[in-house]
Every structure is written in structure tokens, then in C-alpha cells.
Structure to design on (136 residues):
């Protein structure tokens, strides 16, 4: 494994996940969280747990990259999209359990599912682009 490329891929995927989550949750679906305020921490409470959010995103990025490398076949961006789709479906499966056990609004449930899968498809494409060999 090329350590420099692995570190670059982890940093790239973490940055993408962080920005995607920030835009999605703080702008696109921010109003949906207001439909169930008793389920969430207040803004000041969220900031005190920011370390854990970032830690989770870093952990996701590292393992997302590591698992990709173990099956990497140099099949282009489609390989990355397919990988992202499979991991995205795996990662969003627990959202169905949350929906069954917590009073989540339906619109939030749908956005979490679609956004989660889309985020990891795009992350897979980014990863495949990083590992795509330079051809002459």
C-alpha cells in the first residue's frame, strides 16, 4: 500500500464527508430537525460534542478507504460508484431501525437514506479517481 496515497485518500474522503454532512444537515434539511426538537441536542450542546462527530467522520473515512483498497481492481470510476453504493446501503440500513424505534419525521428519514447513499457513492467516485493510475 502506498502510504502517501492512502493518507491523501483518507484526508480527501474525510473532507468530503465533513462538507457534505455540514451542507446537508445545516442547510438542506435543517428545518426538518425542527419537526422533532425533543430528539436533538440544543445548538450549544451539539458544539460540545463536535469532537465525537469529527472522530466518527474520520473513522468512517479511514475504514471506507481501507476496505476499498482491499478489493480495488482498477476498473475506473464505476468501481468507486459501485463500492460507494454498497457501503452506502450497508451504512443506511440502521436508519430503518431508528425509524422503527424513534419518532423521526418521514421527510428526515427519507433525506437520511437518500443523502447517506448519495454521499458514499460520491465518496467512492472520489476514491476511485484518487487511485486511478496515470496513463500515458
Amino acid at each position: 500500500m502506498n502510504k502517501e496515497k492512502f493518507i491523501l485518500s483518507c484526508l480527501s474522503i474525510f473532507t468530503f464527508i465533513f462538507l457534505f454532512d455540514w451542507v446537508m444537515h445545516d442547510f438542506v434539511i435543517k428545518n426538518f430537525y425542527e419537526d422533532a426538537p425533543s430528539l436533538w441536542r440544543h445548538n450549544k450542546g451539539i458544539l460540545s460534542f463536535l469532537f465525537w462527530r469529527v472522530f466518527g467522520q474520520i473513522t468512517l473515512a479511514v475504514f471506507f478507504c481501507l476496505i476499498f483498497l482491499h478489493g480495488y481492481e482498477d476498473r475506473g470510476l464505476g468501481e468507486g460508484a459501485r463500492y460507494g453504493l454498497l457501503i452506502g446501503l450497508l451504512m443506511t440500513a440502521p436508519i430503518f431501525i431508528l425509524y422503527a424505534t424513534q419518532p423521526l419525521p418521514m421527510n428526515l428519514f427519507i433525506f437520511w437514506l437518500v443523502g447517506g447513499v448519495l454521499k458514499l457513492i460520491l465518496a467512492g467516485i472520489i476514491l476511485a479517481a484518487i487511485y486511478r493510475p496515470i496513463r500515458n
The chain has one domain: 3-131. The chain is about 80% helix and 0% strand. The radius of gyration is 16 Å. The CA atoms of residues 99 and 109 lie 7 Å apart.
